[in-house]
Amino acid sequence: MKNRGLLIIVSAPSGCGKGTILSEVLKDNAYYFSVSATTRSPREGEVDGVNYYFISKDEFEDIIEKGGMLEYATYCGNYYGTPKKQVEEMLERGKNVLLEIEVQGAMQMKKLCPDGVFIFIKPPSISELKRRLKKRATESDEVIDARVAQAKEEMKYANKYDYVIVNDVLEKAVEDFKAIIRAEELSTKRIKVDTKEAE
Amino acid sequence: MKNRGLLIIVSAPSGCGKGTILSEVLKDNAYYFSVSATTRSPREGEVDGVNYYFISKDEFEDIIEKGGMLEYATYCGNYYGTPKKQVEEMLERGKNVLLEIEVQGAMQMKKLCPDGVFIFIKPPSISELKRRLKKRATESDEVIDARVAQAKEEMKYANKYDYVIVNDVLEKAVEDFKAIIRAEELSTKRIKVDTKEAE
User: Chain A closest CA to B166's CA: distance in Å?
Assistant: First the structure.
């Protein structure tokens, strides 16, 4: 029998390199990235089942009613949520399921799934985060300031996660991520060794 | 300021390859192997401070009296124990301290140092353990049977440790060991992120 996979909840302020870390981790076939469902319309280039599952408001509310959303929120009049079914299926198959979720959603999840592995990725410092956001040069100073302010807010929650990874050097952060998952797989919290082992 | 090191307690039945795993891990300078103290006489080839600290019964009892032994036991009329002082110094310096201890001692330590990282190394199976012990061909069948019986006893405690590593492939076991330590270093149980970070 295959062991049940781990539910891994990841949060990080924008500009922390979370996307890059996750895409490195997802190269490993043992991981499955949970795609959120939303009722908003797809933007150009967005693919159903890749960026989001694009479903109707009726469908979404039907899933909520049946208790089928692990967590959900509304934003600008649209629903966003994590369908329970696919997550459950993948965990059963022994895959580690990655959920990328913002801080508030993660705190909701912590109550629902205390067994989850909660990881917060933070920048080496606020000044470094500013530098990175400025380097992108795709946003105005105003937007950058707003992002930095939001990052500061989010970082207040870091200690409520199980682990904190500082993304200073990408390769190290990826290794840290994998080390956490491996350690959790070896933890007796999760896996009980059969002590009456037959020969 | 350097973070305090981790106290790592390792137990394993004989024939599990514990020695090989630990010597691989100890190649890393961030680890310090705690040398036990004993009142028995050094055997040929044994070096004071490497295999053991060889001290007199009076000295040993003096240390016990002053509360200076982390744990100790008597065996064949001699004392064996872990002097607290060196362990404390190394932890303060930020080194991860490795204690190799048998099951009973580890259970004592768990009460004293709940912050310790308790790792149990087990063979893939009892039959594989037998095969390995026989392959060594240094011991009689009787001794091997006694070792196997003892291993079975010790393995009953596996789930009382924080982690269980199965030593099937050495390189993997060493990686698992390092992953556990890294994850513990990133755990918010140990390290609190300064959420009021200045810029």
Answer: 9
- Interface contact B159-A188, CB threshold 8 A: yes
Residues 6+ apart with CB under 8 A from B94: B2, B3, B4, B5, B30
Separation of alpha carbons A117 and B117, rounded Å: 18
Looking at the partner chain, which of B159, B178, B191 has a beta carbon nearest the beta carbon of A192?
A: B159
Does the structure show a pLDDT above 70 at B198?
no
Set of chain B residues whose Cβ sits within 8 Å of the Cβ of A176: 182, 186
What kind of fold does domain B35-93 have according to CATH? Guanylate Kinase phosphate binding domain (3.30.63)
Domain B1-30+95-191 has CATH 3.40.50.300: yes
pLDDT tens sequence for chain A (199 residues): 568 899 999 999 887 888 889 889 888 878 899 988 999 999 888 899 888 899 999 999 999 999 999 888 887 889 989 999 989 999 999 999 999 888 888 988 898 888 999 999 999 998 988 888 888 777 788 888 888 998 999 999 999 999 999 999 999 999 999 999 999 999 998 777 776 654 4
Domain segments of chain A as ranges? 1-30+95-191, 35-93
> What residues of B are in contact with residue A188 (Cβ under 8 Å)?
158-164
Query: What is the distance in angstroms between the Cα of A86 and the nearest Cα belonging to chain B?
Result: 28
pLDDT confidence of residue B199: 43
**What is the amino acid identity at position B148?**
V
Q: Pick from A34, A43, A96: which is nearest to A71 by CA? A: A34
